[in-house]
């Protein structure tokens, strides 16, 4: 029996879609998007954002679904099946997923601790001091690692242990978790949003969010921010979508599913932004400052600005705190499961080891690595690694995927594969996105990020830390990818079921 016949499958189409949406919807939606939207010109940002969704995220989602479902393998196997020489690109995705998985688990562990703190609002009057001081005991800089934080460590044990139990037997475990957790997350967020909209000051918050600054649209940086954001948010270029779609039946509808997954993620993001800004509007009213002043980015927004806001809500604060942090845990957990699958499954194929063994070995390694983020310097390391992987790693992989398919293989061939069983067919505009728009936009994004980094550095971190935790990390991912490519497969790479696309210039161009 070939490996293809043995391949595990999702129990249902809904299970696949829910898992794909579960991966996409995560910390990025709940706290990153509202801030990016606000920072990049409020309502006017929605236009570049939607353009980025249509011209980059959806086309790449379709491409990744097509590669996974047709090549019938995780990222590494699928790329090896496309061309042996591109196997490294699949591994690179798996390694980036592995890196994100490690620090993502640490943020989730903080959220678990905060769900616990929420019952007593343990952060008190000084959420900022509490987060950096009492809770994380942050050191003075990224080169001072210090000791392990036991509370965060306990959260990590819970996360890695439970993920092992949920996923290590069958893909169906992963699917079940998503089928339960995603509707639960939706209900939690609806509760927050509806209650948030009823707060005094909510309208002012929404005005701040949606008052368009059309001027911002003329700024290329805003467009590039939109392209950068949809990437992380839709879980592209991390092997997740390729691996997930490889568990679909071969003759699956793809274009419609990609649109459903992509736009459900957007819908969720916009909903989160509405919830977050109605709460920020309320906070601003309580503190007598404009809503612009309370919006801080990233980790600060979730773990500092929110607790500060919940403090001003009286009894309601406890309810909001628990719901919010629990939602963060649930939303992030399904993304964490997807990252684990994208990282671990390629190894189980390459070395033909059982899922259980693969999960046991790599969950242990992942857990061990995540301990680094429980240290006093952990937050700095996390921040640097996240910055490099998001701004350079994922975007670079997306660029390479589009370039290889668009210029070295045949775009039309992939479009035909994508359209074969789909309700609505993508036309040549898809080829144009893959061949021109994505490479142009993503290479500009990368160049702008490099320029910014050289001119301004990042958050004032010392060069040595940036090299060690950022550049070196990315370089190591490349090195390991090539090393793995040089090793043989324990399963047949080419099978009768998988038809290889002929290369550009060899044979007739696909229509
Ligand atoms: N999309 C997830 C989020 O928004 C993060 C993620 C990135 C998950 C890449 C998987 C792969 O939080």
Task: Provide a quick synopsis of the model.
This protein is mainly alpha-helical. It has helices at 3-6, 13-24, 27-39, 46-71, 75-82, 87-118, 127-135, 150-167, 171-197, 202-210, 220-233, 240-245, 255-287, 291-294, 298-311, 315-350, 355-370, 378-408, 411-419, 428-456, 463-486.
What do these coordinates show?
There is one protein chain. The protein has 511 residues and is an all-alpha fold. The chain has helices at 3-6, 13-24, 27-39, 46-71, 75-82, 87-118, 127-135, 150-167, 171-197, 202-210, 220-233, 240-245, 255-287, 291-294, 298-311, 315-350, 355-370, 378-408, 411-419, 428-456, 463-486. The protein has one domain (13-510): Amino acid/polyamine transporter I. It contains 21 helices and no strands. The protein is globular. The model is unreliable at 1-5 and 507-511 (pLDDT under 50). Bound molecules: phenylalanine. Phenylalanine (PHE) is lined by residues 23-24, 26-29, 100, 232-233, 235, 238, 240, 335, 338-339. The site of phenylalanine (PHE) has 15 residues, from helix 2, helix 3, helix 11 and helix 16.
Please identify the structural class as seen in this structure: mainly alpha
CA radius of gyration is 22 Å
The distinct bound ligands, ions and cofactors come out as: phenylalanine
Average pLDDT for all residues: 89
Main pleated-sheet profile:
none
Q: What characteristic shape results from the CA principal axes?
A: globular
């Amino acid at each position: 029996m070939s490996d293809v016949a043995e391949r595990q499958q999702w129990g249902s189409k809904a299970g696949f879609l829910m898992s794909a949406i579960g991966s996409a919807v995560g910390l990025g939606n709940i706290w990153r998007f509202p801030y990016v939207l606000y920072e990049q010109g409020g309502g006017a940002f929605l236009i570049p954002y939607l353009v980025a969704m249509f011209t980059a995220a959806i086309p790449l989602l379709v491409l990744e679904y097509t590669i996974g479902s047709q090549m019938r393998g995780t990222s590494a196997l699928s790329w090896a099946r496309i061309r042996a020489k591109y196997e490294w690109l699949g591994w690179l995705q798996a390694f980036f997923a592995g890196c994100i998985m490690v620090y993502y688990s640490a943020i989730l562990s903080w959220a678990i601790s905060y769900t616990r703190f929420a019952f007593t609002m343990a952060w008190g009057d000084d959420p900022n001091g509490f987060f950096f001081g009492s809770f994380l005991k942050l050191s003075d800089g990224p080169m001072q690692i210090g000791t392990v934080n036991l509370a965060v460590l306990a959260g990590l044990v819970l996360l890695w242990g439970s993920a092992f139990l949920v996923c290590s037997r069958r893909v169906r475990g992963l699917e079940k978790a998503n089928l339960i957790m995603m509707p639960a997350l939706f209900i939690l967020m609806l509760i927050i949003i509806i209650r948030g909209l009823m707060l005094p000051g909510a309208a002012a918050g929404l005005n701040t969010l949606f008052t368009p600054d059309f001027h911002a649209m003329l700024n290329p940086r805003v467009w590039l921010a939109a392209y950068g954001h949809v990437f992380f948010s839709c879980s592209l270029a991390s092997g997740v979508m390729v691996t997930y779609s490889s568990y679909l039946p071969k003759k699956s509808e793809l274009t419609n599913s990609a649109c459903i997954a992509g736009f459900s993620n957007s819908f969720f993001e916009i909903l989160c932004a509405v919830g977050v800004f109605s709460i920020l509007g309320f906070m601003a009213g309580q503190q007598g400052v404009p809503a612009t002043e309370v919006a801080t980015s990233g980790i600060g927004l979730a773990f500092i600005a929110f607790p500060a806001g919940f403090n001003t809500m009286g009894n309601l604060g406890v309810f909001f705190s628990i719901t919010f942090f629990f939602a963060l845990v649930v939303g992030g957990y399904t993304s964490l499961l997807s990252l684990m699958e994208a990282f671990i499954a390629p190894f189980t194929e390459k070395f033909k080891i059982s899922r259980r063994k693969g999960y046991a070995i790599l969950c242990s390694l992942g857990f061990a690595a995540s301990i680094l983020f429980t240290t006093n310097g952990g937050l700095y390391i996390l921040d640097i690694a996240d910055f490099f992987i998001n701004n350079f790693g994922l975007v670079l992989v997306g660029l390479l995927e589009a370039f290889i398919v668009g210029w070295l293989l045949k775009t039309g061939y992939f479009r035909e594969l994508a359209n074969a069983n789909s309700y609505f067919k993508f036309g040549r505009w898809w080829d144009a996105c893959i061949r021109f728009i994505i490479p142009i936009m993503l290479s500009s994004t990368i160049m702008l990020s490099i320029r910014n980094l050289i001119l301004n550095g990042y958050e004032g971190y010392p060069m040595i830390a940036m090299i060690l935790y950022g550049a070196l990390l990315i370089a190591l991912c490349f090195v390991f990818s090539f090393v793995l490519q040089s090793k043989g497969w324990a399963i047949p790479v080419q099978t009768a079921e998988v038809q290889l696309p002929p290369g550009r210039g060899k044979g007739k161009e696909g229509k």
